[in-house]
Amino acid sequence: MWTVEGRPEGPAHGEAEVFCRDGATTARFLPALAAAGHGVFHFDASPQMRRRPLGPLTRALRELGVDLTHEGEEGHHPLTIRANGIKGGRITLDAGLSSQFLTALLLVGPLTAEGLEITVTDLVSVPYVEITLAMMRSFGVEVRREGQTFHVPPQGYRATEYTIEPDASAAGYPLAAAALTGNTITVPGLGSGALQGDVRFAEVLSRMGASVDMSHDSVTVTGTGRLHGLTVNMRDISDTVPTLAAIAPFADGPVRIEDVYNTRVKECDRLEACAENLRRLGVPVAVGRDWIEITPTRPRAAEIACHGDHRIAMSFSVTGLRTPGITLDEPGCVKKTFPGFHEALAGLREEWGIGVVPD
């Protein structure tokens, strides 16, 4: 259990330098929080995070009167905020590249003087926004939504006890592993009552032929020895796109994933990274602006180019459960969200009698 002491007036220090490393939530949420305080705050990030877009959020903060300067490329880290609180008001936001832009503004809304009225022109990963709204409700803030407009009251937050669900995106790897190898796995704490949209990846596995048993607070996947091809829109669960792409070669028909342009602006261009690695494995693949289609072919041994992306590394490690000789060029990049991933996968291999873990 963690205890956090709130500070409605913003950061306690009048000056700070924050290095966000690869963390997108840190790099996007903290500048908005700092803007609600008073002082000078400098933010920077890793080369990987510097490449990822920030512009829609920082434009919105500027529209709200925040003194914000990009120190390098416009719309990217590093940046400096000279904060003097946020008055509030009406803004229009494009969240078509990341729902985190909207979440950052929703979270800071109660700390403004007059509240926020945010009209969204485009939005991806809607379930993450629903998580934000539910969490804010738990802390006493009721956001009113009218169509694409969110009304955030300027009332502050109320202290409460809050239970954090297991990571549904990370759960996708063992669930996919079970579906791929004909084994069974249960993930407790995630089920039909989960707030996270990525729990719906189990539904994708069900459509592919896996047996899925989902209760209110757990999900069990059992592989049936066969995976079917399918076409699936993954706009709202795009973090699981590499996981599906990595098991697609073992389906009995083409696997087409659509409406996932935002995966191109993650830790790497995930559509191109998936296509590159599938081709390394000898698997035919076609890719477009917001889609990828994989033609099933038995993969061959190859080194996976991770591009520093934890999800590419973990997804193609699952491919290795049925393809001997797969290696990763950056196995350590999994530490961003799942430091014990390789040990966990080794445990499943041993439990299921699959063999040794690839390097």
Task: Give descriptors for this structure.
359 residues; alpha/beta; four-stranded mixed sheet; 11 helices; 17 strands
Give the amount of beta strand, in percent. Answer: 15-25%
Order of helices and strands: EHEHHEEEHEHEEHEHEEEHEHEEEHEH
Low-confidence residue ranges = none
Mean pLDDT, to the nearest integer, reads 96
Instruction: Output the number of helix runs.
Output: 11
Instruction: Compute the CA-based radius of gyration.
Output: 21 Å
Biggest sheet record: 4 strands, mixed
Number of strands: 17
Net shape: globular
Oligomer: single chain
N/C terminus separation: 35 Å
Output the structural class.
alpha/beta
The strand line-up of the biggest sheet is 1-2-4-3
Helix content: 25-40%
What's a concise summary of this model?
The protein is of the alpha/beta class and 359 residues long. The protein contains eleven helices and 17 strands. The protein is globular and about 60 Å long.
